[in-house]
Sequence to fold (395 residues):
Amino acid sequence: MSQNRHILHLDQDTFFVSVERLHNSSLNGKPVIIGGTGDRGVVASCSYEARQSGVHSAMPTKLARKLCPEATFIRGDMEMYAKYSDLVTAVIADKAPLFEKASIDEHYLDLSGMDRFFGCRQWAGELRRTITTETGLPISMGLSLNKTVAKIATGEAKPDGQMYVDHYILRSFLDPLSVRKIPMVGPKTYHRLRTMGIATIHTLRSLPPEVPVRMLGKNGKEIWQRANGIDHAPVQAWNEHRSVSSENTFDNDTIHISHMEQTLIRQCEQLSFRLRTNQQLTGCVTVKIRYTNFDTHTLQQQLPYTAFDHMLIPLCKALFSRLYKRRMRIRLVGLQFSRLIRGVQQLNIFEDSPEMARLYQAMDKMRRKYGSQTITKGICTKPPNQFTKGYEAPD
Fold:
């Protein structure tokens, strides 16, 4: 385990709530809950004041109302949150030698080697102050020798704090903490560990490594390593233009609008499934068409980060409708998702439909088991010769 690495983790404090408070100072110091506002909604984020009443993310809104009836409930504005996320990223990109945008509200930076020039702790503290000054948002940070310990340190520094954990105090810092503090340990894994009498990181790291493997399967070894402060994962350079794409060249140039939309929908389903599998979200959609004379045109639009088909398909169809104006045969249709960030799909939580997330989980499970073409929209199963004929293009 290298003692020369310096990894900084930055995490916005109750990010959605903080953005709302920038626009409405009357919310300061009061319990605030962001998410679906109906009885079937889910909590996306909540202030520390609401947490004191037992409210937490992913809790049904109906239960949150019972626990904290005095809270202000806000449906949320993902477009606004995405803009503030971009502001924070822009500040970091202007100053950091290497950074990774891990989600809409957290970043990792590799500051290794900077001690000889600036001093990592001093530089990190100045960056944190700069972010708060330029965006108005509170942010916490953890600085340590790898991603895992840095992220745990950030959690311990919250709210609006900072913590540095070097290799000399690594074990004394980690040992007394609950195993639920380890990234990768979700509710099910935590429950499994607790039933085995493992409550603290010290107890887990003291076990022979083969024991967690027997208990937890293939993830057991990595969880044990993290309990020992071992994590070799690099900071992956982030590029907002990183993308995934798909193109389809038709056997025969076509003017059938429905056939082209069918192709676009299928591409969207496949790419969004790929995003969810890789735990990524897209913030920009680009549609591409190539006419029979090889003229190629594209049109793109940014959107709140998502990986859900039902949010992406209407946008894809709308872009295609705006793009295809020449009444000429088409030889190629393409689709690209860019401005990718890491993160599981939890940003559509403002819709009062948590069932939608479970539906996607069930469909993706079948796709992973039986193939990506197992489930698709009904229109995508329709043979091309059954489509309504489009208008004839002039020769």
Observations:
- The CA atoms of residues 11 and 249 lie 43 Å apart.
- Confidence is low (pLDDT under 50) at residues 384-395.
- The radius of gyration is 24 Å.
